[in-house]
Structures are given as C-alpha cells and as structure tokens.
Amino acid sequence: MIYDQLVNKEKKLALIGLGYVGLPIALAFARKISVIGFDINRQRVEMMKNGIDPSNELEAADFAGCDIEFTDSLEVLKEASFYIVAVPTPVDEHKVPDLTPVQRASETVGKVLKKGDYVVFESTVYPGCTEEDCLPIMERISGLKMGVDFKLGYSPERINPGDKQHTLSKIVKVVSGCDAESLVQIAQTYELVVDAGVHRASSIKVAEAAKIIENTQRDLNIALMNELSIIFDKIGINTYEVLEAAGTKWNFLKFQPGLVGGHCIGVDPYYLTHKAKKLGYHSEVILSGRNINDGMGRYVANKVVQHIIQHAGDPRKARVLVKGVTFKEDVSDIRNSKVSDVIKVLQEFFVQVDVVDPHADSDELMHEYGFVLADQIGNEYDAVIVPVPHQAYRALDDAYFASITRPDALIVDLKGIYRNQILSRKYWSL
Q1: Which of 125, 168, 354, 405 is positioned for an S-S bond with 374, CB 3.0–4.6 A?
Q2: Is 36 helix (H, G, I), strand (E, B) or coil?
Q3: Domain ranges across the chain
C-alpha cells in the first residue's frame, strides 16, 4: 500500500505548486517522509533551496530537518508516487474561473504518472472540476486509466496566510478519494501531518463543494455587514458600535465590514456560480453578495472624494495617503487586493495618491496594479486611508495623524481600529 511505502521511504511524495498553500504542506510532510517540492518558477525554487520562503510566511528554521528536494525538473518529479497539486485557481477580468494553472499542472502530472501512483488536488475548484476537467488531461497524456492504473483524490486546502494559530496540523482536513481503497490511503497519508484528524468525504465532488461554500458563506456574511455599513452611514450611526451591541447576543455571528480581496473569499464564489450557470441555474444570493463586496472599493473612494470636494475644493490638487495595500493584515500577498480599487477610483479623479505598506513589494505592485510604494510620507494630506490593519499601524494615535494631515483632513479607518481615538481630524469608518 502507498501509505506504508511512503512511511518506509520506499516511495516519495511530491508537492506541485509551492506558494502559500503548497510550501507549508511540503515541509510538514518532509518531516515525516521523503518529499519532492516542484515549482515551475526556477527563481522561487532557488530561494527555497536556500531556506527562503518567497511568500514570506515561513522562517529559515521551518526548513530545518526536512527530507525535501526542491526542483523544477520533470525528471526529478518522476521519482514521486504520490502527487499533491496546490496551484492557484484565479478568475479572469470577467470573473470567469481561469483553470489554466490547474490544467497545466494536470498536464505536468500526466507526463510523470506511473501505474500505482496517487494524485490529490488541493486547489480550490467547483464541484466536478477534478474529475471532469483535470482527470481527462492526465489520462490522455499518461495513457493510464483512473481506478485501474492510478488513484485520484481531492483534499481542499485550509491554509490561512498570516495566521500562526490555525496551522496545517491544527485544522481538520477534509479528504476524498475515487474509491474506498484510495480514501483509506489518502486519509492515512494526511494523518501523518494533521494532528486534528481528517474528515472522510463521501466523494470528490462533496469535498470540492465543502471547500467552495466555506468561503462563499464568509463572503455573504461580510457582504451583509458591508450593506449594513452603507445603511448605517446614511442613518448617521457607527457600524462597529452597532455590531458591538448586537454581539452581546449569544448566537450573533461576529462578522465585520471591509474590503474583500485575496485569492479565496473574493474568488471562490465565482467558481460555484460558474458551475451553477453551466447547469442552467442563475445564482441570485451569491452574486448579490459578490456585487456588494466588489463595489466597496469605489464606495470608499467616493466618500473620500466627496469630503475633498466639500473641504478642499479641487480633487486634482488633493493628496491622499493609503496605509496598507496587501489583501489582509500582516501578510505580503497583494493578489486580488481590493485596496487597488480604492486607489484606481481616486486616480480617476486625478487625486495624488501615496501608498505605503511595510509588507508589500513595490515591484510586485507595479507589475500587478501599475503603482509603486512612496519613498516617504508627506505632511499635508487631505485624507489618510487605513484599509489594512497591520500590527505596525495599530499603535498610531491622533497626534500622528494630525502631524501628516491638513486641519480639515479625513481619517478613513475601514476596520475601526482607531474608533473614539481620532479627535483633531474628521473620522469615518465602514
């Protein structure tokens, strides 16, 4: 059995795609069994060979004591017998799932697949994608047949970037297989690294669906909070004060408003609605939530521009500072950051925008969004926007904001971390 062969280091496990999801999984397994870490980006591979995490999530010590070989070579990849695919699954500019990364990974697996091998996908996809989109590619290229020559499974990733508490070993892992035998072998393999245990789903489609609704549920709850914040703003009351009061009830769900970006919550629901559309059903609730969340960047920028017009006059002469541009606090990931929407709308009004962030990379921002980080902060801003509550920003006080702004400036605190602390400037939050 594959599990015993892995444990005895007679066979190797390979991780395909070494980003936020893949690298922590690869290193966790490498403390127990022999692992091959595969990535198509040679520069990233070289960094990992030197104990550097390109995603800035792991320390050099996390690489110590690991039986792992990092490579971009198919010849090395062929040495593995248990393949885990953890590549990104983004959407395009039309919010349509872009399966290119997962399809190319399937082609890669097809080139190295052998009789007796196992393939498990972790990439977030719509129910049916693993068997209907990925499997045919692997079978065509390898000439092998699932169930006869190799086994297939799906185990959705639950990596939370920046979270040092809910790590791989501490979160129950959902696993699935193409048959009873594969389910047992896949479950036992993941139990090597997941102390919290595994949940055996009845089918690959069930496991895929479980993952997609985890983030869809969060997306809808945040969309409700964002819509409430718009309503409460018109009423003239603070959303966070309302949530604080409502949160005293034992079963109140404590979600907060905010910009919904990243590569999970802001993306995954589109995979589910895409599948639904292909089956002839037009989603209403899910897409309504998505529309609200996707529009929050423009909503925030418009509030700032309105303030500038009212207090400073011509937006073309205004300066705005944006503190924080990553998709969430205390991470370096800028993928699908909705802060870029705020900046884009401000620039449509010809507002001069300075952007700073202790975690983001200026070159990556230029490549992804067309702007760079400011070299230094000025002292006469008409507004300061804090969309990402990095730890480095939480100690900032009223005196600090007063020192870098004009007297009639607006401090925009999207996550409410400075509530009741900004007294010398106008204050607004979602």
Answers
A1: 354
A2: strand
A3: 2-202, 210-294, 296-430
**178 part of the active site:** no
Q: How confident is the model at residue 94 (pLDDT cuts 50, 70, 90)?
A: confident
Q: Is the pLDDT of residue 164 over 80?
A: no
At 250-289, the pLDDT tens digits run: 999 999 999 998 778 888 999 999 999 999 999 999 999 9
CATH class of 296-430: alpha beta
Q: Residues 66, 129, 178, 264: which is the catalytic one?
A: 264
296-430 has the same fold as 2-202:
yes
Mark 140-155 as b/e (b = at least 16 C-beta within 10 Å).
ebbebebeeebbbbbb
Class of domain 210-294: mainly alpha
Lookup: tokens for 139: 């079978």
Identify the DSSP state of 8.
T
What is the full DSSP assignment across 155-191? Answer: ------TT-SSS-GGGS-EEEEESSHHHHHHHHHHHH
* Region 2-202: CATH code: 3.40.50.720
Residue 168 reports pLDDT greater than 90 = no
